[in-house]
Amino acid sequence: MTQTPGSSTESENSRSVTLTRIGDGRFKAMNARGGETFFGTGGLDPDFTPVELLLAAIAGCSAIDVDLITGKRSEAVSFDVACHGEKVRDEQGNHLRDIRVVFDVRFPDGDAGDQARAVMPRAIAQTRDRLCTVSRTVALGEPVVFEDVNAQD
């Protein structure tokens, strides 16, 4: 059975979104807090594709972790993250390989900035190895179950 985000059947650790088709190849995703984002097939509209959203989720999750860790020492002067992967079609079907997350974070001169710069390698290792749920799920390869609630037995 499909759960609606925020429904009483969700546990504290449960995460979910719902999608609604809003046009030819276009969808709206909604979360339990009322947030919305749009995505599509990537034709002429500016919406992200599902693969781009996955890359954004990987980069975003890791960026939040690194920002929280380094931000205890110093506010970044600039904070940019890029995420890239190669889409391939092979005997395993469509998937991404060679996924890479690249941080370009600058801190101010001075002791606090030096402390933040010094902790960057550890912060990146922590998000990669333990903290970022999105990249950890991709790296560990959790199976995805697909269901059709309207399927006839």
Structure description:
With 153 residues, the protein is α+β, with helices and mostly antiparallel strands. The protein is 33% helix and 29% strand. It has 3 helices and 5 strands; from the N terminus they run βββαββαα. The protein has helices spanning 50-71, 111-131, 133-140; strands spanning 17-23, 26-31, 36-40, 78-90, 93-106. Helix 1 (50-71) packs across helix 2 (111-131). The radius of gyration is 19 Å and the shape is elongated. The relative contact order is 0.13. The mean pLDDT is 93.
Q: Brief description of this entry?
A:
This protein is of the alpha+beta class and about 150 residues long.
Topology of this structure?
Layout: E1 17-23, E2 26-31, E3 36-40, H1 50-71, E4 78-90, E5 93-106, H2 111-131, H3 133-140
Antiparallel strand pairs: 1-2, 2-3, 4-5
Helix pairs in contact: 1-2
Share of residues in strands = 25-35%
Average pLDDT across residues?
93
Order of helices and strands: EEEHEEHH
- The number of helical runs is 3
Summarize this structure as a short list of keywords or feature phrases.
153 residues, alpha+beta, three-stranded antiparallel β-sheet, 5 strands, single chain
